[in-house]
């Protein structure tokens, strides 16, 4: 049986792991390689490293850091932040990244998803979508770390991303992110029903029960969180033990 | 020990190299040189990519003749395993024919209320283990898969996993070993499998 995945997300700024509440008010929490290796040992299924400042500061991603991560960590990892050209992705692939996530750059240039998928394969391309709820089923896609709303809508953009060859969708609800009251399960379930590629849920994890809900009610394939892991509020092994007891397939 | 990772136009080769480093086999080579490959004690044939373009490259380099003729233990990983089969539905590609098995595309089972997604991506458990690659402690261990094409269960199947239906998680025939999953990305279980191969 395919297991549901638990994914700690490490937001990186200046080579350090950070986690901001609603992407503001940033606090440093440590060395990404050390923290990533710790999570891998604890049983994390995958890791995501996001260079959260890259897109608006136009900074190139962190190839050297990615290489160090690949040398030390024996589980798959995704890197994202400011990837806007094939050459960026190529450098990250050669450094040892398993997947890249593209967000704002794909919204500005949707062809980027198609180009990436054709060059590197769909399995390498994660379409990250940050969205805010307008009303009911209507969610606006935002860019630049949630700062700028766009004309795109969550469900139609997710469909286009899949059609262009994205291998996974990483959906972050900007309304739920940092609030710790649970994931956007209703929107996630709709995404999961509509799409034929795995959905990674992000934004809102604050308790173990939230993961149970996101896998059952939200029908997500993977649950991503940051601060609850970084501050050891919910250690990965404890979370996995809980989910196994709840009857969810977990490694 | 002389270990060679075959270099060709496929991704993920660096990750396999790093996994060997972590196991203490830092002296391995990454090369497409025929003599180096022929003289190696162990050969690893990794890969993430598309079947027809990678097969075209193997032909151009003469590796399509060399790889099936190798006598030492060879380990194919993911696309490497699929290229060792007879034919792939991906790009309708004739492959190396080491394993007499076709590679087929997963078809989602729409009758399943839990909708099945393609690719099969994530951690799945290994069952019905055979071959020295897998010690008994690995039965039911989870390993990491990413693939849209699969090899059905057949005479060369050395481990099974289940997604939509049972499929070959590993193959073995004579000196040829292959895994559909990525041992280099499969945490401690994967490291044990790589170590078992290197210690054959």
From TrEMBL, chain A:
Q: Which residues form the active site?
A: 11, 130
What InterPro entries is this protein classified in? Aldolase_TIM (IPR013785), His_biosynth (IPR006062), HisF (IPR004651), IGPS_HisA/HisF (IPR050064), RibuloseP-bd_barrel (IPR011060)
Q: What Gene Ontology biological process does one annotation of this record name?
A: L-histidine biosynthetic process
Mainly resides where?
Answer: cytoplasm
GO function terms (MF aspect): imidazoleglycerol-phosphate synthase activity; lyase activity
The GO cellular component terms are:
cytoplasm
Instruction: Please give the coiled-coil regions recorded for this protein.
Output: none
Pathway named in the protein's UniProt entry: Amino-acid biosynthesis; L-histidine biosynthesis; L-histidine from 5-phospho-alpha-D-ribose 1-diphosphate: step 5/9
Which E.C. number(s) belong to this protein? 4.3.2.10
Q: Where found?
A: Cytoplasm
Give start-end of the signal peptide: none
- Look up keyword Cytoplasm and say if it applies: yes
Q: Which reaction does it catalyse?
A: 5-[(5-phospho-1-deoxy-D-ribulos-1-ylimino)methylamino]-1-(5-phospho-beta-D-ribosyl)imidazole-4-carboxamide + L-glutamine = D-erythro-1-(imidazol-4-yl)glycerol 3-phosphate + 5-amino-1-(5-phospho-beta-D-ribosyl)imidazole-4-carboxamide + L-glutamate + H(+)
Family classification: Belongs to the HisA/HisF family.
Q: Which PANTHER family match?
A: IMIDAZOLE GLYCEROL PHOSPHATE SYNTHASE HISHF, IMIDAZOLE GLYCEROL PHOSPHATE SYNTHASE SUBUNIT HISF/H IGP SYNTHASE SUBUNIT HISF/H
> Subunit structure, briefly?
Heterodimer of HisH and HisF.
Quote the function comment for this protein.
IGPS catalyzes the conversion of PRFAR and glutamine to IGP, AICAR and glutamate. The HisF subunit catalyzes the cyclization activity that produces IGP and AICAR from PRFAR using the ammonia provided by the HisH subunit.
Q: What is this protein called?
A: Imidazole glycerol phosphate synthase subunit HisF
Organism source for this protein? Answer: Marinilabilia rubra
TrEMBL record, chain B:
Gene3D superfamilies listed in its UniProt record: 3.40.50.880
Q: Which domain of life is it from?
A: Bacteria
Any one cellular-component term (Gene Ontology): cytoplasm
Q: Which residues form the Glutamine amidotransferase domain?
A: 14-198
The name of this protein is: Imidazole glycerol phosphate synthase subunit HisH
Function recorded in the entry:
IGPS catalyzes the conversion of PRFAR and glutamine to IGP, AICAR and glutamate. The HisH subunit catalyzes the hydrolysis of glutamine to glutamate and ammonia as part of the synthesis of IGP and AICAR. The resulting ammonia molecule is channeled to the active site of HisF.
Classify the main location: cytoplasm
Q: Which GO terms describe its molecular function?
A: glutaminase activity; imidazoleglycerol-phosphate synthase activity; lyase activity
User: Is the keyword Lipid metabolism assigned to this protein?
Assistant: no
Q: Identify the pathway.
A: Amino-acid biosynthesis; L-histidine biosynthesis; L-histidine from 5-phospho-alpha-D-ribose 1-diphosphate: step 5/9
The source organism is Marinilabilia rubra
What are its GO biological-process terms? Answer: L-histidine biosynthetic process
Which compartments does it reside in?
Cytoplasm
Task: Name the residues annotated as catalytic in the UniProt entry.
Answer: 78, 182, 184
Report the CDD domains cross-referenced here.
GATase1_IGP_Synthase
Reaction catalysed by this chain?
5-[(5-phospho-1-deoxy-D-ribulos-1-ylimino)methylamino]-1-(5-phospho-beta-D-ribosyl)imidazole-4-carboxamide + L-glutamine = D-erythro-1-(imidazol-4-yl)glycerol 3-phosphate + 5-amino-1-(5-phospho-beta-D-ribosyl)imidazole-4-carboxamide + L-glutamate + H(+); L-glutamine + H2O = L-glutamate + NH4(+)
* Subunit: Heterodimer of HisH and HisF.
State the NCBIfam families in the record.
IMP_synth_hisH
**One Pfam family this chain carries?**
GATase
InterPro entries recorded? Class_I_gatase-like, GATASE, Imidazole-glycPsynth_HisH
Q: Name the keywords, alphabetized.
A: Amino-acid biosynthesis, Cytoplasm, Glutamine amidotransferase, Histidine biosynthesis, Hydrolase, Lyase
For this protein, what is the EC number? 4.3.2.10, 3.5.1.2
């Amino acid at each position: 049986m395919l297991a549901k995945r638990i994914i700690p997300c490490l937001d990186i700024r200046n080579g350090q792991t950070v986690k901001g509440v609603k992407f503001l008010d940033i606090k440093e929490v440590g060395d990404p390689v050390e923290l990533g290796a710790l999570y891998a040992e604890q049983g994390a299924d995958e890791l995501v490293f996001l260079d959260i400042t890259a897109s608006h500061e136009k900074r190139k991603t962190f190839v050297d850091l990615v290489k160090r991560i690949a040398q030390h960590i024996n589980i798959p990892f995704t890197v994202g932040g400011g990837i806007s050209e094939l050459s960026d992705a190529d450098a990250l692939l050669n450094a040892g990244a398993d997947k890249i996530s593209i967000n704002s750059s794909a919204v500005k240039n949707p062809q980027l998803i198609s180009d990436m998928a054709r060059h590197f394969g769909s399995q390498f391309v994660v379409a990250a979508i940050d969205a805010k709820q307008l009303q009911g089923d209507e969610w606006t896609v935002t860019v630049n770390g949630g700062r700028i709303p766009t004309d795109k809508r969550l469900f139609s953009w997710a469909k286009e991303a899949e059609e262009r060859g994205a291998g996974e969708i990483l959906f972050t609800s900007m309304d739920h992110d940092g609030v710790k009251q649970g994931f956007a399960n209703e929107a996630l379930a709709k995404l999961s029903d509509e799409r034929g590629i795995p959905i990674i849920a992000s934004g809102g994890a604050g308790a173990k029960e939230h993961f149970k809900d996101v896998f059952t009610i939200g029908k997500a394939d993977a649950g991503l969180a940051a601060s609850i892991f970084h501050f050891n509020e919910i250690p990965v092994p404890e979370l996995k033990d809980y989910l196994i007891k709840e009857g969810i397939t977990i490694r | 020990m002389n270990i060679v990772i075959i270099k060709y136009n496929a991704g993920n080769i660096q990750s396999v190299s790093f996994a060997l480093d972590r196991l203490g086999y830092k002296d391995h080579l990454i090369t497409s040189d025929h003599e180096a490959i022929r003289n190696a004690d162990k050969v690893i044939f990794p890969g993430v990519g598309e079947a027809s373009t990678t097969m075209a490259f193997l032909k151009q380099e003469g590796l399509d003749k060399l790889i099936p003729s190798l006598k030492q233990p060879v380990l194919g990983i993911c696309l490497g395993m699929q290229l060792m089969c007879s034919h792939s539905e991906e790009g309708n590609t004739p492959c190396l024919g080491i394993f007499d098995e076709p590679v087929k595309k997963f078809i989602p089972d729409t009758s399943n209320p839990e909708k099945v997604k393609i690719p099969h991506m994530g951690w799945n458990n290994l069952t019905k283990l055979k071959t020295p690659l897998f010690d008994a402690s690995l039965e039911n261990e989870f390993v990491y898969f990413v693939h849209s094409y699969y090899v059905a269960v057949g005479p060369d199947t050395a481990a099974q996993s289940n997604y939509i239906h049972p499929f070959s998680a590993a193959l073995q025939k004579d000196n040829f070993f292959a895994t559909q999953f990525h041992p280099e990305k499969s945490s401690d279980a994967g490291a044990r499998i790589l170590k078992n191969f290197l210690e054959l």
